[in-house]
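hey
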């Protein structure tokens, strides 16, 4: 006996057989009729339809023979399925393959055997139709043809089952594809980062995504309750009608910027893109309206949630419809055609929506292969759709240094369902075709698609925005540098008295970090003394008035005289947002002024008031007499023989004498009186509040003359000098002229100098004056 050989396509053959679900199945009346027919046609005892499995053969239909299965290695049919034609044995005992086969040497004692292989629609030989008998027989050509005919009938029955099975499988796959496409469309429609709406040709809402409604402060339902033209300015509504007409008449998609009514009453600036969706025959179906908030982007997840739920219910309902459509193949095929048309429309709607989107859209498989690429992606990255499709998205649009991270993120998601940070809405660097980096805002949405993930990636080019932000930052830094380097204290106080800014001058003045002030209430960070100094100014400025004052600040290092100015920061509506603070250090200027003032009024050698100062003092004293009518006296003094001191002892010795003379004069008068040096060795004394002018003046003059008797100490030498004194009295009511009064005293001094020197003389008639020594 020879065991049946294994066919070369065994594995595929067994798979085809298993898919038919016929092994070990119940008898089939149609097949039983055919085996009965075969036995009768050939007048044999037995007819079988056998299916050859991996290690047994199963008798799907038997006529005569009563077994259900036998081992494959003793089977006749195992041989039948490997021959191209029929296997015909007139007497099995004479064939080396079968002469000792258990079915030959034992029951059913097969002698005659004729079998024809049965093939599946794909050509796999899964079994055979055979007839056999316990008596040897011959089979002529007519018999062979008949056996082939009956085998073809059996094969046709099997094909009918296979066809039904395939149709059922194909229907199931088509249903899955429709559900998938529906899900893809809805997911994209709802996840679009822009507002999307479909409008009837009359401009009525058909479908609005939550993003669109959210832009206008509406829910989808409430927005759809308001006609679009009522949301627009009257002029814009008229334009919209004209725009619709143009699109219907074949015009290109149009983009416009409109002020649209927000539900809360204000207007929102939106960029609106109108396009038209046409059916397969070109007839206009509906309008697609894309809206983008061009003032600010706002999330709308909450609204999306509700709409998604209703759309999912719609998917479930449709799935139910499709399931019931599987009852009859013909009907199912018809419905399939309809649904395929709908799928096509939705695909085109999706594709149109994506192509008019203002964001780049890239669809990629979990291996990274690009399967979707819209027009905006071409504009953003430079690759045409044809160039991009089929390529790896990381290689194409991710900067080389980020590719490993992106691939790891995708792997983490696919293998562990771990949602990496990379998928969150955020910013990243993408890569242009020419290699330069593009800053983009990304949204990544994984979708479960038929046993694997697809990634929907929305990318929005934000390079221009980033560039503007960088420029702004640079300008702010430049401004900050200037502010920190001007020798002026600059700050900003908010209306709630909190400090928002203080420049580096603050640290220079107070030795404290200005950052410690930021956001702190000024009354808390200033000392009580400082706050008392500036509170009035700050509050005045915060009530809208400019204010300035010179204040004396104890700034730690050293006290400063500061000119503090407060300028209110007024908003466009007139309310006060805060105030700018400018502090200019006047200390140096004040010191200089003081020096100049002193130098203008003081004699540098003796430190006594100079000529200008004593003239002012005399003038004011005379003016005071109007309120306090007390007489005063002016002395004009000149040292006698002073020139000789210089000549004999030198100029320094002369200076010493002058200084000592000044001090000596001060000891002769009251603290309220004034001693001044006019020039050279000329001095002046102003005596005020005299009771008896002449007597009082005489007493002072004599005191001076006496004081001059004391020698001047010049180191190794001592000298004695005298002075000549002219005295002018001024009584209340007399004309006020300091220069004239001084001249009068000078003239009196001159007279005594010309006569005796070393004495005093009153101005006026000779008898009123007296020389004293
Ligand atoms: N050491 C010194 N000498 C001065 C200063 N200013 C003026 N002199 C000198 O003071 C002298 C004053 O001159 P006079 O008053 O004419 O000389 P005198 O010797 O006092 O003459 P009589 O007044 O007539 O007694 C001059 O020699 C000046 O050069 C000064 O600031 N220091």
């Amino acid at each position: 006996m020879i065991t049946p050989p294994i066919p070369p396509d065994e594995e595929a053959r067994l798979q085809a057989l298993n898919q038919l679900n016929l092994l070990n199945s119940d008898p089939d009346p149609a097949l039983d009729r055919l085996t009965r027919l075969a036995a009768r046609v050939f007048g044999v005892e037995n007819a079988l339809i056998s299916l050859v499995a991996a290690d047994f053969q199963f008798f799907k239909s038997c006529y005569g023979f009563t077994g259900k299965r036998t081992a494959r290695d003793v089977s006749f049919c195992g041989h039948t399925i490997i021959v191209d034609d029929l296997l015909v044995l007139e007497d099995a005992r004479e064939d080396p393959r079968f002469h000792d086969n258990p079915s030959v040497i034992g029951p059913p004692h097969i002698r005659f055997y004729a079998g024809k292989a049965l093939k599946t629609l794909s050509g796999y030989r899964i079994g055979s139709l055979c007839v056999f008998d316990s008596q040897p027989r011959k089979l002529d050509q007519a018999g062979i043809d008949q056996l082939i005919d009956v085998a073809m009938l059996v094969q046709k029955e099997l094909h009918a089952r296979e066809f039904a099975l395939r149709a059922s499988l194909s229907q199931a796959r088509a249903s899955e594809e429709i559900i998938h496409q529906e899900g893809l469309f809805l997911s994209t429609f709802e996840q679009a980062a822009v507002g999307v709406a479909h409008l009837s040709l009359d401009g009525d809402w058909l479908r609005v995504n939550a993003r669109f409604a959210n832009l206008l402060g509406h829910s989808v339902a409430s927005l759809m309750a308001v006609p679009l033209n009522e949301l627009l300015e009257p002029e814009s509504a008229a334009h919209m009608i004209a725009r619709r007409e143009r699109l219907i008449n074949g015009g290109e998609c149009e983009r416009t910027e409109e002020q649209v009514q927000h539900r809360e009453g204000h207007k929102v600036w939106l960029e609106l893109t109108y396009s038209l969706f046409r059916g397969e025959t070109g007839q206009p179906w509906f309008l697609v309206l894309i809206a983008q908030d061009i003032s600010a982007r706002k999330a709308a997840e909450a609204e999306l949630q509700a709409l998604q739920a209703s759309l999912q219910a719609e998917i479930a309902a449709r799935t139910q419809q499709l399931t019931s459509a599987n009852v009859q193949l013909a009907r199912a095929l018809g419905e399939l055609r309809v649904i395929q048309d709908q799928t096509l429309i939705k695909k085109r709607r999706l594709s149109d929506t994506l192509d008019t989107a203002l964001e780049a859209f890239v669809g990629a498989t979990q291996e990274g292969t690009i399967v979707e690429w819209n027009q905006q992606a071409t504009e953003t990255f430079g690759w045409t759709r044809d160039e991009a499709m089929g390529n790896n998205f990381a290689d194409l649009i991710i900067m080389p240094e980020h590719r490993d991270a992106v691939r790891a993120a995708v792997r983490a998601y696919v293998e562990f369902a771990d949602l990496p940070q990379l998928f969150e809405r955020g910013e990243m660097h993408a890569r242009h075709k020419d290699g330069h980096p593009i800053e983009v805002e990304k949204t990544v949405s994984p979708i479960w698609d038929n046993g694997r993930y697809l990634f929907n990636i929305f990318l929005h080019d934000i390079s221009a925005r980033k560039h503007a932000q960088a420029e702004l930052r640079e300008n702010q830094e430049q401004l900050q540098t200037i502010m920190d380097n001007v020798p002026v204290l600059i700050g900003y106080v908010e209306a709630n008295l909190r400090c928002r800014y203080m420049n580096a001058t603050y640290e220079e003045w107070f030795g404290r970090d200005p950052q410690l002030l930021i956001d702190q209430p000024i009354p808390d960070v200033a000392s009580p003394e400082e706050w008392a100094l500036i509170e009035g100014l700050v509050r005045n400025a915060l009530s809208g008035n400019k204010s300035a004052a010179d204040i004396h600040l104890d700034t730690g290092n050293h006290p400063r005289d500061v000119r503090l100015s407060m300028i209110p920061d007024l908003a466009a509506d007139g309310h006060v947002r805060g105030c700018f603070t400018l502090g200019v250090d006047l200390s140096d200027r004040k010191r200089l002024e003081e020096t100049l003032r002193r130098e203008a009024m003081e004699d540098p050698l003796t430190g006594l008031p100079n000529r200008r100062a004593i003239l002012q003092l005399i003038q004011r004293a005379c003016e005071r007499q109007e309120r306090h009518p007390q007489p005063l006296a002016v002395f004009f003094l000149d040292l006698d023989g002073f020139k000789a001191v210089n000549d004999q002892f030198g100029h320094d010795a002369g200076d010493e004498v002058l200084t000592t003379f000044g001090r000596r004069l001060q000891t002769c008068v009251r603290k309220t009186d004034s001693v001044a040096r006019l020039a050279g060795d000329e001095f002046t004394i102003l005596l005020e509040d005299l009771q008896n002018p002449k007597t009082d003046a005489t007493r002072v003059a004599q005191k001076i003359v006496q004081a001059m008797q004391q020698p001047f100490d010049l180191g190794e030498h001592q000298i004695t000098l005298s002075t000549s004194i002219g005295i002018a009295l001024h009584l209340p009511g007399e004309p006020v002229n300091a220069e004239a009064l001084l001249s009068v005293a000078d003239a009196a001094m001159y007279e005594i100098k010309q006569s005796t020197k070393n004495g005093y003389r009153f101005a006026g008639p000779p008898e009123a004056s007296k020389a004293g020594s």
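Residues 467-590 form a domain with the Beta-Lactamase fold (CATH 3.30.450.20). Confidence is low (pLDDT under 50) at residues 766-773.
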